[in-house]
Amino acid sequence: MAQTFANVVPPQVRNRRRGAPPATRAGRKMRSMYPSWFYIPAAALYVVLFAVPTFASFYFSLTRWSLFDVHFIGLDNFVQFFSDPQLSQAFLHTLVYAVITSGLKVVLGLALAVLLTSSLIGRGYLRAVTFFPVLVSTIGVGLTFKVLLDPFDGVVNGALSVFGIQGPGWLTDPNLALISVALVDVWKGLGIATLIYIAGIVAIPQEYFEAARVDGASAWKVFRNITFPLSWPATGTVVILSLIGGLRSFDLIWAMTKGGPGFSSDVIASVIYKQYQAGFYGLSTAGNVVLFVVVTAVMIPISIFINKRSVDS
């Protein structure tokens, strides 16, 4: 008997829309299939490669250090870091950059994934083209777009002039520099977001789509009731990865603008690097600790919310 579109939506999704309480995780505890000692090598590697450097960074952020001596100075590095007038501006730029890049990667990645999982001619080729920018070096992309976006000799403004449009100073206008770099970041990282969404959409049981077609559901209804809610785990992964990347972004910004013009595209990571270049190693280490705290404070509540929605889905 053919399924109908009315019952094609999974019970969990229907219950959530009706205000029903989400499914609980009680009784889902699973026993490990390996003995405890099996985890010791991995734990040792984790401690040596991750835990020790992390705690060492916390210690050195409280010191004035060089390669030859270390002096403990307490919280002076943090006081000096937060008294930097560039910091508040860089902090705002970091949040704007992360929101723009992650938001566009979610929207465009989902749209491209829906398109590239349909019966499209040349689908494999288009998938390869979409993923190609991910394979290119970030510094190479930054330097290339710096030439393309040159206000006088760049290809972009040259193409606009053919239509009688005078292109702006993409990287020299303080109001456009950060947004221009963010758009290049979206272009480069969109392939990863699309790939994650394609994996999420392909994993949806085809019976749901077949039942929707039997019932004559429109493409928008199929997307709204099946594709979007059931690809929520992929959305969570894209949001988390792109937000972390956006908050920590440095190499592309440095390659294209070096934080300029002025301080208009400075982010926390570029401020830290400038302090490191100036020889303030303890101060730059304190900045890294601040960046770690900021990323953690932003990502923990978002991760909890996304994981809760993923369980409900």
Automatic annotation (TrEMBL):
GO CC annotations on file: plasma membrane
Cross-referenced CDD domains: TM_PBP2 (cd06261)
Entry's Gene Ontology BP terms: transmembrane transport
Source taxon at top rank: Bacteria
Classification via Gene3D superfamilies: MetI-like (1.10.3720.10)
Bilayer topology term: Multi-pass membrane protein
InterPro entries referenced in this protein's UniProt entry, alphabetically: ABC_transporter_permease, MetI-like, MetI-like_sf
Disordered: annotated span: 1-27
Entry keywords, A to Z: Cell membrane, Membrane, Sugar transport, Transmembrane, Transmembrane helix, Transport
Coiled-coil stretches: none
Compartmental location: Cell membrane
Pfam family, one: BPD_transp_1
Segments crossing the lipid bilayer: 37-60, 95-116, 128-149, 186-205, 226-247, 289-307
Stretches assigned to the ABC transmembrane type-1 domain: 91-302
Membership in a protein family: Belongs to the binding-protein-dependent transport system permease family.
Protein name stated in the entry: ABC-type sugar transport systems, permease components
